[in-house]
Amino acid sequence: MPRYSRKESKCDEAQLKWFESAMERIKKATGARTQVQLAEVLDVRQSSISDAKRRCSIPSEWFLRLYRSHGLNPDWLSEGNEPVYIHDNKAKIPADILLREAPGASSRMNSRGRVVQVSTMAGADKDGTVWVPNPTEELSMPESLCPPKLAVVKVNSAAMEPAIGFGSFVGIDQARLEHPDGALCALHFPHQGLVIRRVFMQGNTFLLKPDNDKHMDLTIPAEEMSKRMVGQVVWVLQQLV
């Protein structure tokens, strides 16, 4: 039976080693690099992370949350037993690819790689009221470009060309829900999926402008912005030629 938590009050050397190994796998798989980010990923208070470290104990509900949010296998998180992911479309990622460090500059964060899931812009439920990722492929990225609440999509529109080309990969930080004028934002529209536009406030409405003049502007009432906002675009990966 996998030991998904340690309940003993005394933290001996073996327990500490288990705890540190399990927490390292959690951090690597989620991209959380600080205690604050880890608490955000796990949806717990920062003090809960400190308490877990003091007890050398990881609550079993943390493993359940990571399964639901990231598809991670609790047995791999706890004991290192593959597969890394339980879902069939993710199980083919081996742990050594997820955890390994690239040669050179080994102490630098940019040298660390992470495999991320790439979703369609339509998402898992095109007709739903909220956008839910629908992973269809994988992409290897530097860990420094993987915030805890990263969503990666493959763009199926030319509306933001030349800044974001058709078929490019876009990273969306779902923790960044502010939308200053001119920011590149991802918004959800039922029956359409994600839409990426530059956002501008105009009175009681938001103007969503494409970079490509062949595509139309969109407008939404200001009161709808919070429910449509998925996050800010933080990086774009595409060929320049």
Indicate the topology:
Layout: H1 13-30, H2 35-42, H3 46-55, H4 60-70, H5 74-79, H6 95-99, E1 113-120, E2 135-142, E3 150-154, E4 169-173, E5 183-189, E6 193-202, E7 205-209, E8 218-221, H7 225-228, E9 229-237
Parallel strand pairs: 1-3
Antiparallel strand pairs: 1-2, 3-4, 4-9, 5-6, 5-9, 6-7, 7-8
Summarize the model shown.
This protein is an alpha+beta fold and 241 residues long. It has seven helices and nine strands.
What does this structure look like?
With 241 residues, the protein is of the alpha+beta class. It folds into 2 domains: 85 residues, lambda repressor-like DNA-binding domains (434 Repressor (Amino-terminal Domain), Orthogonal Bundle); 136 residues, Umud Fragment, subunit A, CATH 2.10.109.10. Helices cover 26% and strands 25% of the residues. Strands 2-1-3-4-9-5-6-7-8 form a 9-stranded mixed beta sheet. About 7% of the residues have low confidence.
